[in-house]
Amino acid sequence: MEEPRKHQVSLRGASAKEITREALLEKVNQERQLRIAAKRANAATLLIQRVWRRYIVTKKVAMQYQQEWETSLNSCMSLSTTNWISTSVLRPFIFFITCLSTKHRRIRARDIGCISRCFTMLLESINSTDPRKNFCSMTTGSIEEKSTWTYQAQKLISLCSLILAECDKCHEGGQKIVVLTSLALRLGVMLTDPKGWKCVADDQYNLQDAAAKDLVLFMGSYKSGLYIAIRKYINKLDSQVNSSLHTDEKLLVTTSAITLALRPFHVAHFDVNVPGKLDCCFAAEQYCLLVLTIPWLVQRLPVFLKPALKHKSVLSPCFQILQVSGNKILAEMSEMDQLKIDQSSKTIPLAGWALANIVYLVAGTENEFVDPRGFNIVDYASYVHVMTILAEGLLDKLENRGWTKMENQEEICVPYLDLLKPVCQQWHLKKLLTTVSNINAHLLDTDNPSLKNPEPYGKLALLDIAYFYSYILRIYSTMNSTMGSLPVLNMLSFTPGFLASLWEEMENFLFPVEVRRLVDNHLGKSKISSVRKTGISEKIPKQTNKDKWGSVLNKFTGKSSTDVGGVDCQPESSQLDDEKLEKWDIEPLRCGPMGISKDMTCLLYLFCATYSHLLLVLDDIEFYDKQVPYTLEKQQRIASVLNTLVYNGLSYNISQQSRPLMDSAIRCLHLMYERDCRHQFCPPDLWLSPGRKNRPTIAVAARTHEALFTNMRLDESTSVLSFGSVITTTPHVFPFEERVKMFREFVNMDKVSRKMAGEVSGPGSRSIEIVVRRGHVVEDGFQQLNSLGSRLKSSIHVSFVSESGLPEAGLDYGGLSKEFLTDISKAAFAPEYGLFSQTSTSGRHLIPNPAAKFLQNGMQMIEFLGRVVGKALYEGILLDYSFSHVFVQKLLGRYSFVDELSTLDQELYRNVMYVKHYDGDVKDLCLDFTVTEESFGSRHDIELKPGGRDTCVTNENKMQYVHAMADYKLNRQILPYSNAFYRGLTDIISSSWLKLFNASEFNQLLSGGNLDIDVDDLRNNTQYSGGYTEGSRTIKIFWEVVKGFEPEERCLLLKFVTSCSRAPLLGFKYLQPSFTIHKVSCDTTLWASIGGQDVDRLPSASTCYNTLKLPTYKRSSTLRAKLLYAISSNAGFELS
Question: By C-alpha distance, which of 745, 726, 746, 744 is closest to 734?
Answer without folding.
Answer: 726
